[in-house]
C-alpha cells in the first residue's frame, strides 16, 4: 500500500489513516485542521487502499447501496499497517472516516498497538459489528465517535440503523471504562468529512496529553 506523509515526519506521535483517492483530495486541509486544534506535534501517514469495500471490511457482507458487496480484506490491510507501527519510541493512533473509521475500531479489537481510535462517522451499521465489539472489546485507551445528525434519517433500512448502533457502541465503551466521546455533527454523511476527521484525531491526542 502506498503511503503519504503529512505533518512533521520526525514527530513521535503518528496518526494512521486508511484513505482512497477521494480522501487524498482533502487530506492536507484535514492535517491543517488537526494542527489548529491540538498542540501535539504529529505526523499523519495516509495509507492508500486499493479496494475500499474489500480492503477495509472485516468480513463479507451484501451490498447496501449500489451493487458492490463488502469483502473480508481488513486482516491483510491491518498486517501491512502494523509493519509501519514498529518503533517503540513512538505513539500510534488510528482513525479515519466512514468505512475506514469502522476498520480503525475493528483494528483496535485485534491489537493494543494503537493508543487511541479516531472514528469519524463510522459505518456502525455494518452487519454484526456491534456484537463483535461486545464479544472482543477494544484494546485502546481512548475512542472518539461521531455521526452526522441526518445520517440515520435514510430510507435504506440497513444504513438507518447507524444511529442505534453508534449509541450502543458509545454505551458499551463507557461501561467498560474506555475514555470515549460521541459527538453529533450537523448534516448528512457527506458533509465536512475532512473537518470531522480532524476533530476526531485532535480529540484523542488532546485527551492523551491531559
Describe the structure in your own words.
The chain is an alpha/beta fold and 210 residues long. It has a single domain, classed as Rossmann fold (3-Layer(aba) Sandwich). It is 37% helix and 22% strand. It contains 8 helices and 7 strands, in the order ββααβααβαβαβαβα. A 7-stranded mixed beta sheet has the order 1-3-2-4-5-6-7, sandwiched between helices. Strand 5, helix 6 and strand 6 form a beta-alpha-beta unit. Helix 2 runs parallel beside helix 8. The longest helix has 16 residues. The radius of gyration is 16 Å and the shape is globular. The termini are far apart.
Notable features of this structure?
single chain, alpha/beta, Rossmann fold, seven-stranded mixed β-sheet
Short description:
The protein is α/β, with parallel strands linked by helices and 210 residues long. Helices cover 37% and strands 22% of the residues.
Secondary structure topology:
Blueprint: E1 3-7, E2 13-19, H1 21-24, H2 27-37, E3 42-48, H3 52-55, H4 74-82, E4 91-97, H5 99-110, E5 114-120, H6 129-136, E6 142-148, H7 162-175, E7 179-185, H8 193-208
Parallel strand pairs: 2-3, 2-4, 4-5, 5-6, 6-7
Antiparallel strand pairs: 1-3
Rg from Cα = 16 Å
How many beta-strand runs? 7
CATH class label: Alpha Beta
Strand content: 15-25%
What shape does the CA trace take? globular
